[in-house]
Amino acid sequence: MSQPLHVIVVEDDPDLREELVIGLGALGFDCIGVADAPTLYRQLVLRRPDMILLDVGLPGEDGFSVAAHLRMTPGIGVVMLTARGALEDRVRGLDGGADAYLVKPVALEELASTLRSLARRLGPRLEEELASAWKLEAGGWVLREPGGRTVVLTATERTLVERLLSTPDRVVSRDELMASLTDKGQDYDPHRLDVLLSRLRRKLADAGFESPIQVVRGIGYLFKNA
Ligand code: CA
Predict the structure, then answer these.
(1) What angle do CA 28, 33, 38 make, to 5 degrees?
(2) What's the gap in Å between 99 CA and the centre of ligand 1?
(3) pLDDT at 175
(4) Is the dihedral of CA 93, 98, 102, 105 positive or negative?
(5) What average pLDDT values come out for the chain (226 residues) when binned by 10 residues?
(6) Are 63 and 81 contained in the same domain?
(7) Could you tell me if residue 111 is inside a domain?
(8) How many angstroms is it from 58 CA to the middle of ligand 1?
(9) What separation in Å is there between the alpha carbon of 132 and the centre of ligand 1?
(10) Does one domain contain both 10 and 103?
(11) What residue ranges in 76-118 does DSSP mark as E strands?
């Protein structure tokens, strides 16, 4: 099962750190924040991140020095995010081990794009996780949208989504869906199926997703997974 990208935010400003951790979390990253280099190094021992978002102006050891140390740990992406926009700082950052150099303030979306773009270059494992498709995880109990956000499903929803997602972009008839929900020989109330599906579509909409499940009138349903 694929995991969301694990990002450590190194930022000494508590407000900005919180904003970044919460904002990137909402965009599907698995994010934690630390305030300085020693805390980062302790974290690295506990759990290796996919990427580090690194402030330059830190108390004690600064971001340039941290980036130089991180060069010895290949495979971890380093994105510098700093107020220092001078050319010499950018060059120093990029030459010193950063994979990308962003100047504050930066829009969260651009930051997320930079992290994803970097992840694509970091290896096939990461690339697979970023595939732009809906997928079921955790034994089918969690539905993940292309952006990385998730919704937990009930047993019935899981059965329906599994069936629909097994033939993406193709209409599954109501009879087929009912068959997937029914024990052998037992009839299923078609009205109940419609209620279930409209509830599921509403649940996805409430979670902020553009629902991938479409109604094809008189025939059935399809799961759009482009
Ligand atoms: Ca700072």
Answers:
(1) 145
(2) 19
(3) 87
(4) negative
(5) 82 96 94 95 84 95 90 81 92 90 93 90 58 72 81 88 86 88 72 90 86 87 84
(6) yes
(7) yes
(8) 5
(9) 34
(10) yes
(11) 77-82, 100-103
